[in-house]
Amino acid sequence: MKPKKFPWFSYTVIIVGSIMMVFPFLEMLFSSFKGAADYNRLNYSLFPETFETSNYATAFEQLKLGLLFKNSLVKSVVTTVIVLLTSSFAGYALTKLRFRGQKTIFRFILSTMMFPAFLFLIPNFYIMVHFPFVGGNDWMGEGGDGGMAKYTLALILPFTVSAFGIFLMRQFIMTINDAYIEAARIDGASELRIFFQLILPMTVPALATLAIFEFIGSWNEFIWSLLMYTVNKDLATLPVGIQQLKSHLDSNMTQPLVNAALVISTVPILLVFIFLQKYYVRGMMNSGLKE
């Protein structure tokens, strides 16, 4: 029996690729501790000569990171929870319930993924401004600020339904044996009880996978948040605040502060992925393209 050859080439490619992926994060982390002169010196060095921890305190003061962090956290968490509910509800209905036009509806949902997101900026903005009975508006959506007055509507409502999330949950729920559902129906369980007590516990890997995608996407979303910021300054999120710092001040002087803010904004994403990574792998393996 021939001894197995060690895949040197594959491991080398993986190691080199890992270093290339990690290096920008390391550069951002160490640069956040540099002073302006240390950051702009000609002889580049990854490690700072002296660690300037004051960059983080200055970033908190100049960016109002408390408000930005709160807005980003509320937006990301609430949006993720609602998307998980709407996607799992739709995935269950499009898979385990039988009604006319089921496949047509699913194809229509998939077709919406072909349109770029910026195509809906103006319609969504108009809807938010003229949202009835909110922000001083009457039933015709006139007379007030509409949804712009509350970040729970302005920052969250346009992202509460995800075509990709519906697709992902549908593909995973398809792998669940119909015998479980039929047995629950025979026992007299309602559809809501079947969904919450049977389907949801069995779809935890897919839910965790979707939660990672949605949280990261909502946390890093920039265009819509920037549009809301131009209307209401209190609706600023971390990506918008960091970009404003870069655009209004000398980037050579403020880049260490920007890096400090970026490090802070990266922490929640890393925590979410660390806690959900084992479910993420299972979800990606079990949510294959099945028809």
From TrEMBL:
InterPro entries: MetI-like, MetI-like_sf
GO cellular component: plasma membrane
Transmembrane stretches, start-end: 7-26, 73-94, 106-131, 151-173, 194-219, 257-276
Keywords associated with the record: Cell membrane, Membrane, Transmembrane, Transmembrane helix, Transport
Biological process annotations from GO: transmembrane transport
Protein location: Cell membrane
Membrane-related topology note: Multi-pass membrane protein
Main localization (coarse): membrane
Pfam family for this entry, one: BPD_transp_1
Keyword match Membrane: yes
UniProt key word Transport: yes
PANTHER family referenced in this protein's UniProt entry, alphabetically: ABC TRANSPORTER PERMEASE PROTEIN MG189-RELATED, ABC TRANSPORTER PERMEASE PROTEIN MG189-RELATED-RELATED
Family from the record: Belongs to the binding-protein-dependent transport system permease family.
Protein name per UniProt: ABC transporter permease
Originating organism: Paenibacillus flagellatus
